[in-house]
Amino acid sequence: MKRLRELLQRIDGRGYKAYKQIKGSYRFTDFQLSIDHVQGDPFALPSRISLQLNPQQHGLPTSLWQTPIRKIALEDFLARAVAEAITQHVKGRRGTGRSGDVEIATSGQQVLQRNAVLIDKSQLDVRLLFALPGSGRSILGEQAAEMFFSELPQIVADALSWNNRCLQEMQQHVEQVEAQETLRSRLSELNAVAFVGNGSLLPRAGGIDDQPLKNGVPFQSPPALEKTLQLPNIGEVTGMAIPPGVTLIVGGGYHGKSTLLQALERGVYNHIPGDGRELVATLGDAVKIRAEDHRAVNQVDISPFIGTLPGNRPTDCFSTDNASGSTSQAANIIEALEAGATCLLIDEDTSATNFMIRDSRMQQLVPDHQEPITPLLHRVRELYETEGVSTVIVTGGSGDYLAVADTVIMLDNYQVFDATDKAKHLAGETPPRVNAAPRLRPSNLRNLSLQTGPLPGQREAKILVREQRLLEYGRKRIDLSKVEQLIDAGQTEAIGRLLALCQQQQPDQPEGLAGALKAALQQVEADGLDILLPWKAGHLALPRFYELLAAANRLRQKS
Ligand code: ADP
Ligand code: MG
Fold first, then answer.
1. Which ligand is nearest to the CA of 259?
2. Dihedral, CA atoms, 375, 377, 382, 385, nearest 10 degrees?
3. Which residues of 108-143 are buried (b: 16+ CB within 10 A; e: fewer)?
4. Does ligand 1 lie within 6 Å of residue 375's CB atom?
5. Which of 106, 187, 339, 498 sits in a 20 to 30 Å window from 29, CA-based?
6. Atom 19 of ligand 1 has which residue's CA nearest to it?
7. Which ligand ends up closest to the CA of 262?
8. In 23-140, where does DSSP find H-type helix?
9. Distance (Å, rounded) from C-alpha 120 to C-alpha 286?
10. Which residues does residue 111 pair with via DSSP β-bridges, in sequence order?
11. Residue 63: which H helix or E strand, with range?
């Protein structure tokens, strides 16, 4: 501490670059401070520091992190506690640019595996962004000293030191997350693809505000779909179990259909206590499918849905830089099958109409041989019966789907009813199966180049995230803005680094693209996110395999 104080005094008022001298490790009373990287100027990305506490210093009971899910939950809790302490104790603006900012990465309403806080038996390691203060280009040494010697110890005392109040909250956080994880793992036992607990609050405060809506109508399962199970830590839980097969969510406009589907999309992740979706769990391999015109498609066999295109263009190995609504939605389904998804989530609001349905009048006007598209309506049963893939489809407009549904959930004023019997009564004939159509599941292994040249003048390919879902991967850009289950910029960056890792380790992809990416992801799951970075940082989050493959699938092959 003394050494750092002296250094800061010595460089006070000097050019900003002199901050480089403080890189290194310092012993504080209650923790070890490590200054891992020093920024070049007050406008650059903030400096990276980390704090290490040994078990005597943090006093956290081993029981709170002894299983993988408990460890993720505890680390998540501590990162949020640090974020809260930052808002309490950090003064913020202390000069030019970002001077004085302190940040830690957290996951919004979800709980993700991250590397901002890592605990193991030897230490607790906490990584922060720490914008060293400067006035223009000169060092504000006294301001920096205040940040290091006043703000930082207060953050540690509030967020990372043992005290009873905090321990109880911490335990509750860990136990709730563990219960959610268990709920998800019990879905198949329950014969369900998804579960929504009674009392859940599904609507969100706003379009970009993921907090729960105040005074929303709590979820209540219709009796016919209700199931009860026992969960660890929280005991008996009752709610709606959506069975495998084809499920429709129907109801009038603005009655809450998309809100329910969105909760299911997010149900592949655990949520923080108080979110309202703690008891919403969807199979971990459920994938949202939507239309995504203008996306790139690489060598995908979309022939199960799209036959020969104008100009005699075959579709069994389809590539384009600019897909249409229907071809993009078809590619999204085939890619999800390739990835091993067993549940597809579809909302008519974000679907291509001609991909979903084709009514008889249109069939009379445009004869079948002129229409390359086989709508999902005609293959959705086969998807379940021969491939074992369930679908949950939101539809307010097309009654044709009633004939292919196993379960129909109706929303009326945000209340949920089982409309299966009524729907079966109204349903016409089941649309004929398209026998001559090609097999749904792709049999070929795709190999795609994940190569991207380094930028001019750079040794290493740069990986950067703009906004949440725009990935700059070396010279290429991958637009993931429509990949809705990608929820965190830290996941997006991890995806970029995983693509690069995969390219280095398996450039020839002997097991195909999906196999190579799976191997890279498994390595990170086993060894931690830190293996993706050559330096110490704390902003990465673990993506799912589906979003990782989604990024590779959208990589434009031509530069
Ligand atoms: P739909 O897809 O049926 O047209 P949405 O799901 O988009 O309807 O919901 C319409 C509006 O109602 C949204 O603003 C949403 O936040 C709100 N909403 C949805 N579910 C509830 C609920 N349970 N309680 C209160 N408001 C809700
Ligand atoms: Mg809707």
1. 1
2. 160
3. ebbbbbbbbbbbeeebbbbbbbbbbbbeeebbbbeb
4. no
5. 106
6. 256
7. 1
8. 55-58, 68-89
9. 32
10. 270
11. none
Which residues, including other chains, have CB under 8 Å from residue 252's CB and lie 6 or more apart? 396, 411, 412
State the Cα–Cα distance between residues 9 and 3, nearest whole angstrom: 10
Ligand 1, residue 201: give the atom nearest the CA. Answer: 23
Q: What pLDDT digit, counting tens, does each position of 185-216 carry? A: 999 999 999 999 999 999 999 988 999 999 99
Looking at the DSSP bridge assignments, the partners of residue 541 are 114
Q: Is 277 in the pocket of ligand 1 (CB under 6 A)?
A: no
Q: Whose CA is nearest to atom 20 of ligand 1?
A: 256
> Ligand 1, closest atom to CA 349?
2
* One-letter amino acid of 210: D
Q: Measuring from atom 1 of ligand 1, which residue has the nearest CA?
A: 254
Beta strand 235-242 with 194-197: parallel, antiparallel or unpaired? Answer: antiparallel
Amino acid at 556: R
Question: Which residues contact residue 195 at a Cβ distance below 8 angstroms, ignoring those fewer than 6 apart?
Answer: 183, 187, 227, 239, 240, 241, 242, 267, 279, 280, 281
Name the residue at shortest CA distance from atom 15 of ligand 1.
203
What is the per-residue pLDDT across 31-74, written as a single tens digit (0 to 9) for each? 999 999 999 999 999 999 999 999 999 999 999 999 999 999 99
Q: What residues form DSSP beta bridges with 472?
A: 464, 477
Residues 6+ apart with CB under 8 A from 515: 445, 509
Question: Which run of H or E residues covers position 543?
Answer: none
Domain regions of the chain by residue span: 2-165, 193-444, 463-553
Of the candidates 103, 89, 206, the one whose C-alpha atom is nearest the C-alpha of residue 147 is 89
Alpha-carbon distance of 233 to 172, in angstroms, equals: 9
Taking 80 as the threshold, does the pLDDT of residue 431 lie above it? no
pLDDT at residue 449 above 90? no
Determine whether the shortest distance from the Cβ of 216 to ligand 1 is under 6 A: yes
- For residue 263, give the ligand nearest its CA: 1
CA of 211 to the centre of ligand 1 (A): 14
- For 486, the token pair is 């990608």
**Nearest C-alpha neighbor of 549 from the set 516, 504, 506, 509:** 516
Judge if the beta carbon of residue 202 lies within 6 A of ligand 1: yes
Give the ligand at the shortest distance from the Cα of 256: 1
Residue 207: nearest ligand to its CA?
Answer: 1
pTM: 0.96
70 C-beta closer than 6 A to ligand 1: no
For ligand 1, mutation pick of 210, 259, 348 (most atoms within 8 Å of CB): 259
For residue 398, is pLDDT > 90?
A: no
Tokens of 331: 């590619």
Whether residue 211 has its Cβ less than 6 Å from ligand 1: no
Q: How many CA atoms lie within 13 Å of 248's alpha carbon, on the beta-carbon side?
A: 29
Per-residue tokens: 358? 């084709």
CATH 3.40.50 fits 193-444, yes or no: yes
Q: Which H, E and C letters describe 380-400, residue by residue?
A: HHHHHHCCCCEEEEECCCCHH
> Is ligand 1 within 6 A of the CB of residue 253?
yes
For ligand 1, whether the C-beta of 199 sits within 6 Å is no
Ligand 1 near 258 CB (within 6 A): yes
Secondary structure class of 283 (helix, strand, coil)? coil
